[in-house]
Structures are given as structure tokens and as C-alpha cells.
Amino acid sequence: MIKILGRANSINVRKVLWLCEELNLAYDREDWGRGFRSTKEQEFITVNPNASIPVLIDNDFILWQSNSIIRYLSNAYSGKHIYPDNNKTRAKIDQWIDWQGIELNNSWTYALQHIVRKSPNHQDIALVKESINSWNNMMTILDKQLEKTEYYIVSDHFSLADISIGLSVQRWYLTPFEKPDLTYVKDYYDLLSQRPAYLKWGNNGKN
């Protein structure tokens, strides 16, 4: 049995939950993280020394880092329709998953901490504006990619990249600040909302 450690309203946990829904995978989930059991407890540190969620436990196999987890589950549980074996197709999917985890994720960190989480350590307004500008710039890059494909991130087929980036698009829309009008990003957001798995897990939180 697959076990997932992490609160269901975490953006990184929701990647895993959304994928499990897409693949019809059964699992048990335990609440860990902000508002629940502390990830600094020794029981959690034993499975993830970084004290971060999610953690996947698949029988005796333990894995952390959300993007690594969704890649593993796709490989292990008949996910070739969204994470194909073809080297070039998979490389493009990985490119956008890594872009989300590095470029896009880093762009929003300061703004999100200030606007949503009210962090006392993120109160420099100049840095907030810089983060917002960077975030909007990343979304403009995404908009240009979606203009090329006209559907999903890599092609006209839903892929593993859309889980990571789809949740990031939702976070951008739900965080209150001034945004550019990005037609293709909006169309993409509407397209994702037609997927039952997204409506169940992708649209249930923003933290």
C-alpha cells in the first residue's frame, strides 16, 4: 500500500494526490506539516531529514521531493500515457517540471511569504515588488509556450509537467496582486478545470 505523508492543502502534496487520482492509485495519507504534526518530530526526520512534505512510502521504499515522487509513481504504476518512454518527449516534460521547481518556484517565494503567509521575515516592499515582477515574467514565458502548443505545456496531450505547472498557475491566480492579462495561461487554466482529478485535488488549496 502506498502511504503519503503531508497535509492535503500543501501545493507539493497536491501534486502527488492529483497524480494518484489520474492513475487511479489507492493510498493512505497522514497529515503532517503546518497545522498538524510537526515534520521536525524524530518519526518524520527518520524518513526525510529535510523535514519537508511530501514523503512517499511504497512498501519498503521511501522517497521525498514532490517532483521525484511523481516521476517515480508514473514509472512504477502505468503512467506512460503522461510520462512516455520516448527520450525526447520525456526530456521536454522534465525540462518544464524542473523549470517549475527552480525558476518559477524561486520567483514567487518572497511575494507569497509576504502576501499570503504574512511572514515577519518578508516585509521588504522592494523585494516584494521584485518577486512579483519576476513571477509575472515567468508566467509570461509560460504564456508564450502555451501559445505554441495551444493546449497543454508540452503538446496537445496532458503530461506530468501539467501537474506541477497547473498547480503553480492556480497559485498565481489566487495570490492577490496585479497581473498581466495572459490569454493562453487563462485558456490553460480553464482547460485544466475540465479534468476531474484537478477539480478534486488541484483546486482544493493554495498553500
Automatic annotation (TrEMBL):
Residues 1-81 form the GST N-terminal domain. CDD domains: GST_N_2. Keywords: Transferase. InterPro entries: Glutathione-S-Trfase_C-like, Glutathione-S-Trfase_C_sf, Glutathione_S-Trfase, Glutathione_S-Trfase_N, Thioredoxin-like_sf. The keyword Transferase applies. Pfam families: GST_N. GO terms for molecular function: transferase activity. Residues 86-207 form the GST C-terminal domain. Belongs to the GST superfamily. PANTHER family: DISULFIDE-BOND OXIDOREDUCTASE YFCG, GLUTATHIONE S-TRANSFERASE-RELATED. This is Glutathione S-transferase. It comes from Acinetobacter nectaris CIP 110549.
